[in-house]
Amino acid sequence: MASRLAVLAEQLRLYKAPAPVPVPEEVEDDETISEVGFRPKKAAVLICLFQQNNDDRFRVILTKRSSTLSTHSGEVSLPGGKAEEDDVDDAYTATREAKEEIGLDPSLVDVVTLLDPFLSKHLLQVIPVIGILSDANAFKPTPNAAEVDDVFDAPLEMFLKDENRRCETREWMGDEYLVHYFEYETGGKKYLIWGLTAGILIRAASVVYQRPPDFLEQSPKFKVPSVLNKDMLMV
Fold first, then answer.
1. Which residues pair with 82 in a beta bridge?
2. Start and end of every Nudix hydrolase domain (predicted)?
3. Using the 8-state DSSP alphabet, how is residue 232 labeled?
4. Is 19's pLDDT higher than 60?
5. Of 64, 97, 119, 160, which cross-links 213 as Cys (Cβ 3.0–4.6 Å)?
């Protein structure tokens, strides 16, 4: 298993990291900011891949957010969060947040590449960071109860298959796009993986397995306008 993970790590290191999405200059007028636009802040999420026992499939670590959180409560998410001023880069943000949320030691994770940024409905420019966990047995999840209700994992390839999936059509800046929903059951628990998290995992699976999904992805065009209006939000 370790050799397959090593091959994947080398493959992903060759993936061309995207250029940063330009972010509009800060608007100085507070009233203008509150009424007509916002400046996107940065965040990063960790797509932590590993293999389990005799299963040769690549799996990804996911969380179910605490039901007490003010945003996205109870939803499935990737470990991660907003960047802080002293974070040195996106990989640091993602691994720092993963340690805070689920107790994943950053020294266990080999960060191999970044994916194209996504834009969340809460005006966050989200950078997906792919990392390899070579020794899955070394990680013992310790979820932060204030942020995470549950920690689980799923096969990454499921996000390329047209199984247990449905979608809805939405609109982004005049262009239609699809929001994907994946139903997943493990350990007697059912999870719904959708929206931004599902979109990131579809993209990650496409990069890892070097093929498109079996369904129409139809992502929105992730352009950041000079002013972001309140109705220009995606899930």
1. 43
2. 40-197
3. -
4. no
5. 160
Which one-letter DSSP state was computed for residue 3? Answer: H
- Neighbour count for residue 8 (Cβ, 10 Å): 18
What span, in angstroms and rounded, lies between the C-alpha atoms of 178 and 131? Answer: 27
How many contiguous H segments (helices) and E segments (strands) does the chain have? 4, 11
Domain ranges of the chain: 2-12+38-209
Q: What is the pTM assigned to this prediction?
A: 0.85
What CATH number is given for 2-12+38-209 in this structure? 3.90.79.10
- First vs last C-alpha separation in the chain: 36
Q: pLDDT tens for residues 162-204?
A: 999 999 999 877 788 999 999 999 999 999 999 999 999 999 9
Helix, strand, or coil (residue 203): helix
User: Amino acid letter at 72?
Assistant: H
Mean pLDDT for 101-111 is 97
Residue with tokens 């960071």: 129
Residue that wins the pLDDT comparison between 222 and 68:
68
List Cα–Cα distances, 127 to 12, 21, 101, 163, in angstroms.
16, 10, 17, 27
